[in-house]
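New to this. Explain the following:
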Amino acid sequence: MTIENNTQTIDHRQLGTAGPIVTSPGLGAMSMSGAYGPTSDAEGISAIHSYLDDGGNLIDTGDFYGAGHNEMLIGRALAERSRDEVVLSVKFGAVLAPDGSFIGFDGSPDAVRNSLSYSLRRLGTDHVDIYRPARLDPNVPIEETVGTIAELVEAGYVRSIGLSEVGAETIRRAAAVAPISDLQIEYSLLTRSIESNGILAACRDLGISITAYGALAKGLFAGKTGGNRAMFPRFQGENLAHNESIVSALGRVASAKGITLPQLAIAWVAAQGEDIVPVVGSRTVDQVRATMSSTEVALSSDDLAAINDVLADSEVRGDRYPSALMAQLDSER
C-alpha cells in the first residue's frame, strides 16, 4: 500500500498477519543517544519531527539505548504529537553496568513487566505498539518471555509482540505461544545470512515480517568508517579494505542509475518483499531526508541483476559484531 505525500510516495506495510501497519523505511533512533559519537537532544528531536513530517510512523528504540536517554528523547519529541501518529517499537532485556557495558540479558517475567513500566513512563505513553526482547535470554525459555508479553497485550499495555536476533527454532517456539508481528534482525546487501540459515523461511512460513536494521552496513555505505565502528571486525584492517572494494563496486551501480549508494542499499532491502521493512538509523534532519529519499527509488530487474553480479564476485569479510557479542546472538547459532 502506498500513500502520496507532499514530496514522495510513502510505502505502508503490515507487520505480520495482524500487526501494525507501518511506513517503509522506519526510523532507528539508537544513534541519537551517542552510539556512534556525540549528538544533541535538539538535533535528535528535530530528526524525529522531520521523519514524522515526511509521513513516516515507525520509530524503533530500546530501553538500554543511552541507559534510558533514547526513550526520554523520543517522549519529548512526541509530547505535542498525536499518539496515533506513531508506531513505537521497543526492545528490552539488556542489563547494563554503571559504565554502560553489557552484563547480560534478562527475559524473566518480572524483568519484562518492570522494564515496560519504566519505558511507558520515559516515553510518556500508556502503551507501546511492539515490544520485544533485544536478545534471547539463555536462562529463560522464550515461551516464558513471550507469554508474559502476551499478558501485557491482554492488559492493553502492548499491542503486538516482536522478536530480535533469534534463530528459526526459537521463532517457531515463540509463535506457538502467541502471534508474532515481526523479527528485527540485521539484513542488508552485506548481511544476507537469513536467506540461507532458515530464518527468513521460518518467518514467511509463520506469517512474520522482518524489520531489517543495518541497511547502511553501520555506515559503510555512507562512507563512515571511524569512531566506535572500529570495534566491528568488518571495519578492521584488511577486512575494511576488502569490504570497501565491494562498496565501491556497488557505488558504481548506484551512479549508473543516478542515485546515491545509501538510496540503493535501502531500496534493495525494501525490494526483497512486502514483508520486509528497512529500519534505518538516523540522528540528523539531513540523514532522515536522505533515508526518506529512498522511497523515490524503484529498482528494476536489471538493477537487481547488476547488484547480484557485484555480490557474486566477492563476499563481505569479518563478523558483524565482536566475538563476545556474536556469542549472544541466537540467530548465529
User: Anything to note?
Assistant: The radius of gyration is 19 Å.
